[in-house]
Structure to design on (112 residues):
């Protein structure tokens, strides 16, 4: 996988550093798409031809370089040139979910 996808996007939200990265999806595309249906056949062909992504997105939330929370979403299918649209489509929802986890972890650490 290209290194650009390992650190695809970084933003600061509510005082946390929030990082988006992609990894290869472990699940096989045929576990999700039915090759007997038209859409499934087209999607599988696009993935096999590398016209479409087959990735897992991970959003990590960091404070002082320490990861405190994360959110993941698998089976990401975008055309490669449109992968940046993932940021507006999904990133911020995933970030807010991960930030809530990070806030809970901080409270837990402060209590101990």
């Amino acid at each position: 996988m290209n290194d650009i996808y390992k650190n695809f996007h970084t933003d600061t939200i509510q005082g946390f550093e929030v990082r988006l990265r992609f990894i290869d999806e472990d699940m096989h595309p045929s576990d999700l798409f039915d090759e007997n249906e038209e859409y499934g056949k087209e999607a599988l062909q696009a993935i096999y031809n590398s016209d479409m992504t087959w990735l897992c997105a991970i959003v990590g939330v960091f404070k002082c370089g320490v990861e405190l929370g994360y959110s993941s979403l698998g089976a990401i299918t975008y055309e490669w040139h449109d992968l940046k649209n993932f940021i507006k489509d999904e990133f911020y929802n995933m970030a807010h979910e991960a930030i809530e986890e990070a806030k809970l972890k901080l409270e837990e650490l402060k209590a101990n």
